[in-house]
Design a protein that fits this description.
206 residues; 6 helices; 31% strand; Rossmann fold; two-stranded antiparallel sheet; binds 1-O-pyrophosphono-5-O-phosphono-alpha-D-ribofuranose; binds uracil; 9-stranded mixed beta sheet
Length: 206
Amino acid sequence: MPVHVLDHPLAAHIITHLRDKTTKPATFRTLAYQIGLLLAIESTADIEIEPKEIDTPLERVTGRVLAHQPLIVVPILRAGLGMVQPFTDLFPDVSVGYVGLERDHETAQPRSYYCKLPPLAGRHVFVVDPMLATGGSAVEAIRVVKAQGAVNPTLVCIVSAPEGVAEVEKHHPGLTIHTAALDRELNSRRYILPGLGDFGDRLYGT
Ligand code: PRP
Ligand code: URA
């Protein structure tokens, strides 16, 4: 399975500050937006473009613009919401769908509580969730978008654990994952190490 890890000094800088437990929610949200922008750019590197003739002030030239193939971004609620704005800021025609999943604190199993998706067939779908831990939430969200017609969706995360990557590969072989960091392992409570703690809690100050 293709796993692309962001390789940029700015990504390393942002991730380090996201990990820092003294980073306050307001700064955390800004950093999440910034890393989201880098991931949105990286994960869309192969979207379609088409030629377009325009006139510069000096001469006619054939440039390239995005082909009319609107993207769909699907955040896994709630923490995934922090990764939506980078996509909507960069891609004006993007549509947003929602999959609400909550990990049980004891079992780490995802519980579904909401789903609202636009038509997905023929669209390039990006499932976004900052944390890929056991992989249970991502596996379920990808199952849902595939069931609604998405073909070859892309998973975009900020911090991933090897266990989660393996779980996604087991259930969705060949799926492309973009992540800003690939961490060491899960702890006994299925939190990512070194990780950054509970992303949703840190994003929303809960
Ligand atoms: C977190 C995170 C992922 C999930 C990852 O969400 O945002 O959705 O856990 O864990 P997994 O890979 O083991 O499934 P959480 O369920 O805590 O909900 P929240 O976004 O509402 O905080
Ligand atoms: N969800 C989080 O927010 N953090 C983890 O480390 C694991 C799951």
